[in-house]
Amino acid sequence: MTHSTAFFTLYERFLSLSISRFTNVTFRKTFKPTLPQHIVYLTNEKRLHLKLFRRTYHLYYAMMLRDTTKLVQKTLFQYKRKLWLDYCGSFNDCDTKSFWQKAKRHFHSKSAPVEGFVINNSTVSTPDEMCAIAKDYYEEQFADHQHTQTDIDIEARINEKELNEILINIPSNPMNINYQQLCRVVASMKKKNSSGIDGVSNRIIKILPPNHLSIVLACMNNFATSLQTPSHWHIAKMILLSKTKSKTTSIDKTRPISLLPCFSKLFEKLFLIHFRRWIDDFAILPPEQTGFRPKHNMSVRLVSMIDQIGQSL
Description:
Elements: H1 4-21, H2 37-56, H3 59-89, H4 96-103, E1 116-119, E2 122-124, H5 127-141, H6 151-169, H7 179-188, H8 202-206, H9 210-226, E3 237-242, E4 248-249, E5 254-259, H10 262-282, H11 298-312
Helix pairs in contact: 2-3
C-alpha cells in the first residue's frame, strides 16, 4: 500500500477492460408477450388476401382484404385495451414505491443525441470540431470565480488560511472505514451503467466479490490516512444533451452533465458517514438545521414550531 493510488488506478483499469471483454448472460424478469394465436391467424389471413389481390386484382379479394383489415385492427385495439386495463389494475395504491416505479416509465423523456452544431448558418458534424467548439464555449462558462473585495470574501479567505494552518500544524485523526460500512454503501448504490473517465460503473462495483471489496477497503483507508486520492478522480467526463428535440442545434442550446468516477463517489459517501457522525458528536449544527440532514425534514420543523407556539400560549 505504499503506492496505493497507482495500484488502485491499475485496478480500475483492470475492471474497465474486464467488463469490455467479458459477456454476462442473465434472464430478464419481464418480457413483451407475443400476440395471441387468433390474432396471428387473422394477420396471416390478411397477408394471404393481400398476396392474392396483388396477383389477380380481383374484386372478391379486394373486398376480403378490406374486411379482414378492419377485423384485424378492431381485434388488435381490443387486445391492447385489455392489456392496458390489466396493467392499470396491477397498480397497488398502498405500495408507493412499486407504484412510482411503474408510473415513471410513462413520464421519462429521453434527450435527442447531439449530432451537429449550427455555427454561422453552417452545420459542423465532425467529432473533433464539435469537441473544440464545446470546449471553447464551456471553458468560458466554467471560468474561475474572480475574487472581489467584499467583506464576506475577505473574511472567507482569512478563515480558509487559518484552517489550512491549523490542519498543517495539528493534523486530524484519519477516519477508519470498516467492512460493514463499505458493504452498506455499495448496496445502496443504484444499478447504473454510466461510468466516468475510468470506465467503471455502479453495476460493476455491486457485483464485485468479497475479496475484491477487501482490496477496495484497504485502499480507501490508505487514501484517508495519506490524504491522497488518484488524480483522475478529480476529472469529470462531460456529456452534452440537447435542450431541443432536434439532433442538430446551436451550442448555447445544449445542457452539459458531468460524470465523476464511481469509486470517487463511493469514497465521498463513506466520508459523509464519518463527517455526519463528527457533526453530531460535537453538536456543530443547531437542532433547527434540517436541510440536507437524514431524518430531518419540513415535518420535523413544523412539529417543533407548533410545540413552541403551544408552550408560548
